[in-house]
Amino acid sequence: KANGITEEELVMTKEQLKTEMIMGNETAKSRMNSNAKAILLRDGIIEEDEIIRKVNEVTLDDVKQYAERVD
Which helix (H) or strand (E) holds 54? Predict the structure, then answer.
């Protein structure tokens, strides 16, 4: 889109991300797999609450700035 995403699209995307993350970590095997990846790729586990907080903090301006950098 020429003008980027709308506030409504951002909210829907953030809710979808959080839902997929929570639903994807329902089993012990899924959590262990996620934790192993986090340790290998990021040198530590980021708690689910912290990820949700960071997702909630994303703004339209953040998305626009990132899109301009990768465009």
Answer: helix 48-57
Rounded to a whole number of angstroms, the distance between the first and last alpha carbons of the chain is 12
Which string of DSSP letters, residue by residue, matches 12-41? HHHHHHHHHHHHHT-SHHHHHHHHHHHHHH
pLDDT digits (tens, 9 = 90+) for 7-40: 999 999 999 999 998 888 788 888 888 889 889 9
| Dihedrals phi, psi of 40, to nearest 5 degrees | -70, -40
Instruction: Please name the residues in contact with 5: beta carbons below 8 A apart, sequence gap of 6 or more.
Output: 13, 60, 63
pTM: 0.75
